[in-house]
Design goal:
Elements: E1 2-10, H1 20-33, E2 36-37, E3 43-47, H2 58-67, E4 76-79, H3 82-85, H4 89-102, E5 106-109, H5 119-151, E6 163-166, E7 169-172, H6 176-187, H7 192-201, H8 214-222, E8 229-232, E9 245-248, H9 257-273, E10 291-293, E11 300-303, E12 308-311, H10 312-315, E13 325-326, H11 327-342, E14 346-350, H12 353-357, H13 361-383, H14 389-414, E15 424-428, H15 429-434, H16 439-449, E16 450-456, E17 461-466
Parallel strand pairs: 1-2, 1-3, 1-4, 4-5, 10-16
Antiparallel strand pairs: 6-7, 8-9, 11-12, 12-13, 14-15, 16-17
Helix pairs in contact: 6-9, 7-8, 13-14
Length: 470
């Protein structure tokens, strides 16, 4: 008795006529009629997968690989219809040819049986052409339908955070007020990371149930759906759909056009200040994100253990030359170099007090208290034999560093900032660099006129590249 394999594929749950159970039932009956043995291990299934591309069908590719084994594992492959095997003529011809010429295995259809004469070649080609036409035509019809739906304001995507779908329309859900608070906090000067941190502390999660990250917050800030619009990408897709096409939707907006425009203005400022892959939260030191390695171009990041800067690529083993330098030393050298290059230029700035503070003292105080409670818990874990002395020491150092950072932020918030609130004042570069200003203010000022700083440790040189304005 000849052995047979069965290949079963269904694209969507709606294709009840070609459901997996229906296909295997028909194939088993056909195998019995033709006196084929159909072992369970030779039944290959791809469910919910299109037949347009064979490489995207894991079970199909496993079947082809199995067919190439020696001795030949089966003599024929049975499908319900040829369209189950492939909806792409090129794939159909290639893989059928491999099976027939290299493996001696034929592909036969239960519902589209071919004769044994030469007309079978013509009929098989017609079936393949019809299957591919159906697939291409279906794709065009779906695309056309989605386009018409989008133009008329209908939804063609999953609801974003803050909305749910009801009767085919986005409706505000229990997170709608959270969205308004995100925009409010962002406009008030909070960074993406700080907003995400607050949401996570409050137990709020993304639409997929995950913790918030900076990118989630920026995605919300950049999404015009919250103003009552719908969008879809046109051309090359980008993470935040900068080139998206928008139309007026039928749903209720969560924020006004004015608030959205103000948020985009600040988002653009952040993009100009912080190039890709640089964090945008308040700087903990003046040179954050500005100094680069002369060897690989990587950013020099703070090493808290010895309060120095080091190339982040070197720390990851991607750069072969160490650029470690004490933060205090490089601060002094760069400050003197900038003052030497530019002189003590006087300029006007306008910084809102609330933007300097970023977060309230109560917020940092509450976070510090939570970290102190963690100290008690890890000590208890060590005393009860849950953690080793090494684990306790490592956790303790990590928490103490966090507390130190929070207390430092708290001191900066409470510092006596000489800039009057919401007023334009005259100051100078030396006053900013040498003055008693928070490190984040110094960092922002430097970013306004400094493009990048190249540090060459081997030659002990520093090159500063300044921004040019028309």
């Amino acid at each position: 008795m000849k052995k047979a394999a069965a290949y079963i594929r269904v694209s969507t749950d709606e294709q009840t006529e070609f459901s997996p159970s229906s296909q295997i039932r028909k194939i088993r009956l056909f195998a019995e009629e033709k006196n084929y043995c159909l072992p369970d291990e030779f039944i290959f299934r791809d469910e919910g997968i299109s037949g347009r591309n064979a490489e995207n069908r894991p079970e199909f590719m496993r079947m082809i690989s199995t067919a190439k084994a020696l001795p030949r594992p089966f003599d024929v492959i049975i499908v319900w219809k040829f369209s189950r095997f492939a909806r792409n003529r090129e794939d159909s011809i290639i893989y059928k040819s491999i099976l027939r010429k290299q493996c001696g295995i034929d592909v036969i259809s239960v519902s589209e049986q071919l004769s044994d004469d030469n007309s079978a070649v013509l009929m098989e080609a017609i079936y393949e052409a019809m299957d591919e036409f159906y697939s291409l035509n279906l794709a065009e019809e779906v695309k056309r339908g989605m386009n018409e739906k989008f133009i008329s304001g209908g939804i063609i995507s999953q609801p974003p955070f803050g909305y749910k779908v009801n009767s085919g329309i986005f409706q505000p859900d229990e997170n709608a007020e959270t969205v308004r608070k995100i925009f409010s906090d962002f406009i008030s000067g909070n960074s993406y990371r700080k907003i995400a941190e607050r949401l996570n502390i409050c137990g709020i999660r993304t639409s997929r149930g995950n913790f918030f990250e900076s990118r989630n917050i920026e995605y919300i800030i950049s999404n015009p759906v919250y103003t009552g619009k719908l969008r879809r990408s046109t051309g090359k897709k980008t993470r935040f759909h900068e080139n998206a096409e928008t139309v007026r939707g039928m749903h209720k907006p969560l924020i006004s056009e004015e608030i959205f425009a103000e948020a985009q203005k600040r988002r653009q400022i952040i993009k100009n200040l912080y190039p890709p892959f640089q964090k945008s939260e308040p700087a903990e030191y003046m040179l954050r994100g500005l100094v680069r390695c002369s060897d690989c171009g990587g950013i020099l990041c703070l090493q808290r253990k010895n309060n120095s800067l080091q190339c982040h690529n070197y720390a990851k083993g991607k750069c072969m030359i160490s650029h470690s330098v004490k933060l205090e030393k490089i601060n002094q050298i760069i400050s003197e170099k900038i003052l030497s290059d530019m002189g003590d230029i006087t300029f006007e700035i306008n910084i809102h007090q609330k933007n300097i503070q970023q977060n309230s003292p109560e917020f940092f105080h509450s976070l510090a208290e939570k970290e102190k409670k963690k100290l008690i818990r890890i000590k208890s874990a060590y005393e009860n034999g849950i953690d080793t002395i090494e684990e306790y020491r490592e956790n303790k150092e990590k928490i103490l560093r966090k507390i130190h950072s929070l207390e430092k932020n708290l001191r900066e918030i409470n510092a006596d900032i000489t800039l009057p609130e919401n007023k334009t004042v005259k100051t100078s570069i030396s006053a900013i660099i040498k003055g008693n200003y928070p490190e984040q203010i110094k960092n922002i000022i430097l970013r306004c006129f400094t493009d990048r700083i190249i540090f060459d440790r081997q030659n002990n040189t520093i090159e500063i590249y300044y921004k040019s304005y028309p």
